[in-house]
What does this fold into?
Amino acid sequence: MSYSVLDLSPVREGGSIREALNNSLDLARHAERWGYRRFWLAEHHNMPGIASAATSIVIGHVAAGTETILVGAGGIMLPNHSPLVIAEQFGTLEALHPGRIEVGLGRAPGTDMMTLRALRRSYESAETFPDDVVELMHWFKPATPDQAVRAVPGNGQNVPVWILGSSTFGAQLAAQLGLPYAFASHFAPTHLMDAIEIYRARFRPSERLQKPHVMLGVNVVAAETQEEARVLRTSLLQSFVNLRRGRPAQLPPPDANFERTLNAAERTMIDQMLSCSVWGDPDTVTQGLRAFQQHTGADELMLTAHVFDHGARLRSYEIAAAGLAR
It folds into this structure.
């Protein structure tokens, strides 16, 4: 089983955008040595705790500082963009880093309604998502002699394309187009098993992919002891609660007493949204990740770790990789 990294370039309280982006590169370099297959960054807007809004630029930053790990988007929110512009951006990245660039595509805006208007987009843009995916793949194909408009760079580079999803819609589209599928189980696990079943049952082989490939997101917080991991995990819990309260913020430091402040509704929300999470000491994390993979039949796991201290975040990914590599 392959394992990969989803990094949101977290901006921690008291930190800076520059620190967050440099930490992402440092994490990618370590992940490359620890055997992670790919390193993805995500497009979010108007989020004080996420530094990867200009996703293609951050991908270039990470790819330039690494050597072998695949670097991509998890994902690009395609309704926010022209497919031609995305083809040009990722065609440029592929030209600079041949064979190492890929793009995962999402249908959601990755932001709120006011920011969506600032992006000059609307929720109706998502209605053309399937057609936009097909158009993007068209721009990656070799241009024909009579083709009036071309993606330069982009044409002929055949950048790998993934479909992302948190519902059954993405599963159906990925199956129909014969593309690999990544499910956001790390924050929206409700339809996980239904989406996997639909994708595998309806998958049509394509020139890009001959058999279905499922990658699942998992929150991971690993440390030397169960108690240390429990405390480190509270940064993630605080972030989710802040987001649900409509007050997104920078990644907060751990608070050992935070869970005691939650009301019943907040506890239920956290239990539901973070049900695909593994935390604890090395043995607990290894067993948890392997049990999750066996339960779902995932071909690949994409781990994300919202840990305040960068050194502790590195250690979390290192522990997880060591367990999965055994």
In short: The chain has a mean pLDDT of 95. The beta strands are 2-7, 38-41, 70-77, 101-106, 161-165, 181-183, 214-222, 277-280, 300-304.
